[in-house]
Specification:
With 160 residues, the chain is of the alpha+beta class. Helix content is 25%, strand content 44%. It has helices at residues 2-15, 20-31, 101-114; strands at 34-39, 43-50, 53-60, 80-87, 90-97, 118-125, 128-135, 138-145, 151-158. It has a nine-stranded antiparallel beta sheet. The longest helix has 14 residues, at 2-15.
């Protein structure tokens, strides 16, 4: 899955200027899977199938959190969803927020443990912070990256 997700992510970044059909062909070639690409003025949605099951990736201004995203995983607010990915093994969200990094991290620590998640890792490495939680065989990883404009929050949840 790691190779697949990496190829798909690179395809999204580098191919957003292409037409839908050209984009589909390049994503299919990079990932070895069949892909459908829907481009609008405000978002891009890619759906496809791998040997492990169906995947969906949405990026852009109108990106929404998947309706079946686990309800015991905290999503920081106020934030804007930049990218949402759903694969058979889990979910990935990329959010941005103008709040302070320590406030975001403290809120995640409080909310995740309140939902029964056990903290496994907490570290700060310069501009990046990471929290890792486990619950019932699942893992939730939260990284907060400081940039000049806004903080980026990457939330990855494995369902297996």
């Amino acid at each position: 899955m790691t190779r697949f997700v990496f190829c798909l992510f690179l395809s999204i970044i580098f191919l957003t200027g292409c037409g839908e059909r050209a984009e589909e062909e390049k994503i299919e070639k990079a990932t070895g899977t069949k892909a459908d690409v829907d481009l609008s003025n405000k978002k891009m949605k890619i759906t496809g199938e791998t040997e492990n099951g169906r995947y969906t990736i949405t990026a852009g201004e109108e990106t929404e959190i998947p309706s079946d995203f686990p309800d015991d995983v905290f999503i920081y607010r106020p934030s804007e969803v930049l990218m949402a990915m759903q694969v058979p093994e889990g979910y990935s969200l990329t959010l941005t927020s103008n709040d302070d990094r320590s406030k975001i991290l403290d809120t995640y620590k409080q909310k995740m443990t309140a939902q029964g998640w056990a903290e496994e890792t907490s570290m700060i490495m310069g501009p990046q912070s990471m929290l890792v939680y486990k619950k019932n065989g699942r893992t939730a990883s939260i990284s907060v990256i400081t940039s000049e404009k806004a903080l980026q929050i990457n939330l990855v949840v494995s369902t297996k």
